[in-house]
Each structure stands twice: as structure tokens, then as C-alpha cells.
Amino acid sequence: MKTMITQGDQLKKQEETLTFIAFVWFCRLIAVLCFYSGITYWIRLIGYHDGPLYRFDLMPVHWQVAATSLAVLFPVAASGLWMVVSWGPVIWVAAAAAEAVMYLWFPELFGARPVTLVAHGAVAFLYLVFRLALYRETRLAAR
Hints:
The chain is mainly alpha-helical. Helix content is about 75%, strand content about 10%. It is built from 5 helices and 2 strands, in the order E-E-H-H-H-H-H. It is elongated and about 60 Å long. The protein starts with a strand and ends with a helix.
């Protein structure tokens, strides 16, 4: 069975191989995690949780900029990843890069979260492995 996926304005047929099905489920798992991250940033913005940085009007400016940006980027990335469209990973990279900059280069402002950095690195690595495997399958099928 073949599935039609869009890339830009062009329709491509992709065989539903085990690698492709695993890739779709990987993207959807990451989409759920992105949606969860977006929700946590929204909780921080609206002040639902108690804490010194858990209300927009009490946050320092650097947290206001970061939290509002990531509260938008993560759910948008989640929808793109869930649909397995080309712009989903691009938006995820923007959000992950923003968090990496926050926690890696400005730990005095945002704190250090090495687990988040490792998780983003692992997701990026697995995504690249899946894309290379799918490329290889496509090249072998074309022969």
C-alpha cells in the first residue's frame, strides 16, 4: 500500500515500509512531547502554578520573551510533526535551538537543564537516522 505525502507542491508516493511506519510514530511521539512542553510554557505564562517565575507579569523580561516564544513554537511544531509535514521538524529545530541557547549559554538567567539539552540532541540524532534510512530505502527501491 502506498501513502501520499506532500512536500511543497509536489506529491510523492512513499511505500509503507517498517522504517516509514516507525518514522511516523517517532514524529507523533515527539509531537506529543512538544505539545506537553508548549502546555507547560502556557501554564507558566498564565500563572496557574505557584512560583516566582510562574506568572507573566512577575517574570523578568528575558523569561517573558522566551516563554511566550516557546509557548507558541512548541504547539505549532507539534501539529506539524503529528501531520508528518516538512515544516514540523523545522519549527521543532527553532524551538529546540531556542531552549539550547537558553540553557546552554545563559544558565545564569534561565538555569541549567542538561536533561533537556540531551533530549533535544537525541531527538535530532534519531530524526537524522530515520531520514537517512528512508533515503537509503528510496534509493534502493529506485534501482
